[in-house]
Amino acid sequence: MTSDNTLPEDRYVARFIRQERFAPLGAEGGQQLRRSTALICGCGALGSMIAERLARAGVGTLRIVDRDWVELSNLPRQTLFTEQDAALGRPKAIAAADALAAIDSRLDIQPLVADVTCDNIAELAAGCDVIVDGTDNFETRFLVNDYSLKYKIPWVHGGCLGASGQVMTIVPGQTACFRCLVPDMPPRDAIQTCDSAGVLGPAIGIIACWQAAEALKILAGRVEAVCQDLLIIDCWNTSCRTLSLASLRAQRTCPACQLGEFPFLDGQLRTESVVLCGKNAVQLNAVAATSDLAALADKLRHSGAVKNNGFFLRLTLSNHVLTIFKDGRVVVEGTTSPAEARNLLAKTLGG
Q1: Are 157 and 168 contacting, i.e. CB atoms less than 8 angstroms apart?
Q2: Would you tell me how many other CB atoms lie within 10 Å of the CB of residue 346?
Q3: Cα–Cα distance between 274 and 271 in angstroms, integer?
Q4: What is the pLDDT of residues 161-173, one digit of tens each?
Q5: What DSSP character marks residue 224?
Q6: Which of 284, 272, 286 is nearest to 335 (CA)?
Q7: How far apart are CA 130 and CA 108, in angstroms?
Q8: What's the 3-state SS for 148-185?
Q9: How many Å separate Cα 302 from the centre of its chain?
Q10: Span 181-233, pLDDT tens digits
Q11: Which residues does 224 contact at the CB level (< 8 Å), separation at least 6?
């Protein structure tokens, strides 16, 4: 998504003069940013701010992938969205792209309404120089870690809960990887979410900006400057510390970066249903992909109220809402039970 822009090249470059006066970046680093491509996986709280910081820094191409839509409860911490976006239920990737294009019309912004899976990650990451984590689940992070290691593309992990968060930069062959830190998927009941623990917008901002800074180092060709430790920040208790990961890497027992096992990328470990963070909802990957949402909308009108915005259609039932995407995903709101969601889907769509 780009816009016509008649601004002369010298005037466009001049907008970045203050960041390029920072000697470790310099004009050469700025030029490299404008030639680079970043993939942002998830455009919620972390991802929307990461996208804005990279856009304002002049990163040439931003590929933004998100599976969700804007809701009113997003606005306290998701900086690119408005009440109108929430009222319209706009896809986050599309709303973010529009906002970023207004910031810098020369940027190549590529919004994709999709889930990051083992089936599409190669296409999503094609040509990217860095992958930045804006996700809210461990499975996607394990998948990104597998892809990063196999294809030697750096990625920047970030996570935030309550008033604290963490940042970890993974440079294949040079740093510890995510599975050095978290060898296996944590049990679902052991994972706190923003529903249970809450989250503060300023904490999101701190973590996202730190992730963006790490990504800029990579994109500008300053990989030697990335942090090789785990950074942990708490903005409520006013604490910041780093945890060395060198000893984990030295153990040489990591199933991913040391043993070369990539079960998430190979599709050996994947789930067909996900309880979504921040929603009373389950996502199912259970419907055949379709490019004709209008025909599907006509088929479903006898079941309830249907709205089709061109990216997904939403069917409102008495106690549930089904959101059906072109790629075959269905989000069933009104339950956190995958079994109940599947049963409802079968009754509504058949099969």
Answers
A1: yes
A2: 11
A3: 7
A4: 999 999 999 999 9
A5: G
A6: 284
A7: 16
A8: HHHHCCCEEEEEEEECEEEEEEECCCCCCCHHHHCCCC
A9: 36
A10: 999 988 766 676 676 678 999 999 999 999 999 999 999 999 999 999 999 99
A11: none
